[in-house]
Design brief:
The chain has 10 helices and 13 strands. The chain has helices at 15-24, 38-48, 57-61, 78-87, 102-114, 129-139, 159-164, 178-193, 291-305, 313-330, and strands at 4-9, 28-34, 52-54, 68-71, 91-95, 119-122, 146-154, 196-204, 215-222, 227-233, 242-249, 252-257, 263-269. The longest helix has 18 residues, at 313-330. It binds nicotinamide-adenine-dinucleotide. The site of nicotinamide-adenine-dinucleotide (NAD) has 25 residues, from loops.
Length: 333
């Protein structure tokens, strides 16, 4: 079988998860890398054995042997780059959030549809074993009626993190702890609880010298009548504390925790089954976890089998809309 040729745009902090996942996958080949900072592009080319590097992504998109583009640039650039890739006939894997507005996200989805290419959004935590187990329990109806849920991200990002790259924490290119960090858990919350009826939130900026929020809270009502709570922060002293997702139903209680929903803290169901919970626990070296490997494997299969990726654009936009709803609600008039 011919390998799929990948090209990465943006060789910064998260791109290595893409490069490593591509390198590990026998059906994938990392052909090109691109960064406007030449040194970074050269570094990635050498480290991961790519054939060629670019400093202009438009030139990379002209390469006829390029099949898939991984967009790992600042969030405010995702939609424009994804649309350009789709128009060039390339499949698109985009980092989260897929865009910073609903209009841009819709435009990206439409461009991929119109050009017959696949689109996946990197909510890699959906592949975490505890999250997969929780999703199976929901699909099997083990919770009975869902009553409420919470998504909590208590993390720490020092001022240095924001100062490393000027786009971080800006409204035009990033957003704050809700749009950047907590969107992962908001994605999981809505994946488990279903569509949202309404959302109300507050945001604040206490410590970080950025435009956007470093703390945010919200309450939600889901269309099924269940209620939800979101708590997001990047100022938890003195380090990352937890990313937890708790789901409560009439016949079940599950709480996933760890620093990035990688542990099962509580697992109780009325239909208690003989379950080995240890099997699902995961030790992760950082909050990125291991999900990019599974996401890229799924994406390759989606291309080969001509089916939708596990987390396509229509899935990826849901959490974006919730965050935008919170921002809208939190605007003081
Ligand atoms: N899935 C996750 O867990 C996860 C984790 C971290 C970041 N992210 C997302 O990944 C994206 C990148 O974040 P990061 O922390 O790696 O950022 P970063 O600043 O470390 O890297 C971004 C890179 O893009 C390059 N770039 C900027 N403009 C470019 C252009 N026009 N053409 C080519 N390259 C360009 C920059 O030079 C930089 O090297 C963000 O959207 C972020 O939200 C996702």
């Amino acid at each position: 079988m011919k390998k799929l040729n990948f090209g990465i745009i943006g060789c910064g902090r998260i791109a290595y998860k893409h490069a490593e996942a591509i390198k590990k996958n026998e059906k994938a080949n990392l052909l090109y890398v691109c960064d406007i900072i030449e040194e970074r592009a050269v570094d990635y080319k050498n480290k991961y054995g790519a054939e060629r590097y670019f400093t202009d992504y438009h030139e990379m998109l002209e390469m006829p042997d390029l099949d898939v583009v991984n967009i790992c640039t600042p969030s405010g650039m995702h939609a424009e780059m994804g649309i350009a890739a789709a128009k060039a006939g390339k499949h698109v894997i985009v980092e989260k959030p897929m865009a910073l507005s609903s209009i841009d996200a819709d435009a990206l989805i439409n461009a991929c549809d119109e050009n017959g290419v696949k689109l996946a959004v990197c909510f890699q935590n959906r592949f975490n074993p505890p999250v997969q187990k929780l999703r199976r329990a929901l699909e099997e109806g083990r919770f009975g009626k869902l009553t409420h849920a919470s998504a909590v991200v208590r993390w720490f990002r020092p001022q240095d993190y924001y100062d490393q790259a000027p786009w971080r924490g800006t409204w035009a290119m990033d957003g704050g702890c809700l749009m950047n960090q907590s969107i992962h858990n908001i994605d999981l919350l809505q994946w488990m609880m279903g569509p949202v009826e309404s959302v109300f939130g507050y945001t604040a900026n206490n410590f970080r010298k950025i435009e956007a929020e470093d703390v945010g809270v919200a309450v939600l009502e889901f269309k099924n009548g269940a209620l939800g709570v979101i708590e997001a922060s990047t100022t938890i002293y003195p380090e990352n504390l937890e990313e937890t997702l708790a789901i409560f139903g009439e016949k079940g209680t599950v709480m996933l925790g760890g620093i990035a929903v990688n542990k099962i803290e509580t697992w109780k169901f009325a239909d208690s089954q003989d379950e080995n919970l240890e099997m699902e626990q995961q030790d992760v070296p950082n909050v990125y976890g291991f999900g990019h490997d599974a996401l890229i494997e799924d994406f390759i299969r989606a291309v080969i089998e001509d089916r939708r990726p596990y987390i396509d654009g229509r899935e990826g936009i849901k959490s974006l809309r919730i965050v935008l709803g919170i921002y809208h609600s939190a605007v003081s008039l």
